[in-house]
Design a protein that fits this description.
The structure is a single chain. The protein is mostly helical. 39% of the residues lie in helices and 10% in strands. It contains 9 helices and 5 strands.
Length: 208
């Protein structure tokens, strides 16, 4: 499950190009439009939510630029279905879920929808965990891993340092996921980070 609607704003068309079902494409666009509308209602520009101070210090200049990076993390597989927050997917394969960008609420939505393991990518680090499903936190930033190695489970920086290929690191991440599936505790579990937060549900219906 790929999540966080705010992280695709400006790049919706790229995700849509990886979808074959026109009904699911329409749902994706309606969720993105609804996300924008919520900010217009309260008179806040979208970038106030999507670009954090850490993003700006890291060099991101626009919401679109951030979205391109977030979409890239979702790989290249076909997206089979678009589901509402905490909705259980009805198809197999890569799914997009409409969730907020807030870490704990996004993770909780996916877990409520049936996710059993979360692989959480972070650039500057995050303490997020979940009381139901283990959260494997990974980073491609070698400085983040060095400074937060007690909190980050997986270091993917070997790719940007040219030491390993994406495929090699992906195989290592898969092995880490299998190990957690077989009982290895994540850093969040060891530290007791198991916060829960559910996003407020509105009466929005993307099929309406």
């Amino acid at each position: 499950i790929l999540s966080e609607t705010g992280e695709i704003i400006g790049g919706e068309h790229i995700l849509a190009s990886r979808m074959k079902d026109p009904c699911e494409v329409a749902k994706l666009y309606r969720y993105a439009e609804h996300y924008n509308e919520q900010f217009q209602i309260v008179g806040e520009p979208l970038y106030m939510d999507n670009l954090s101070e850490g993003n700006i210090r890291g060099g991101l200049s626009t919401t679109e630029e951030k979205s391109l990076g977030c979409i890239k993390k979702g790989g290249i597989s076909e997206i089979k279905e678009v589901v509402a927050y905490a909705e259980r997917p009805g198809r197999k394969g890569l799914i997009f879920m409409d969730t907020p960008g807030y870490d704990a609420a996004s993770v909780a939505g996916m877990v409520a929808g049936g996710a059993q393991i979360i692989i959480f990518t972070t650039g500057l680090g995050s303490p997020v965990g979940n009381p139901v499903a283990p959260v494997i936190k990974m980073t491609g930033n070698p400085y983040t891993y060095k400074n937060l190695d007690d909190n980050i489970d997986f270091d993917a920086s070997a790719v940007i340092k040219g030491e390993k290929t994406i495929e090699e690191v992906a195989d290592q991440l898969f092995e880490e996921m299998l190990a957690v599936s077989n009982g290895k505790k994540t850093k969040a579990e060891i530290l007791g980070f198991n916060q829960i937060s559910m996003a407020r549900l509105c009466n929005f219906n993307c099929s309406g």
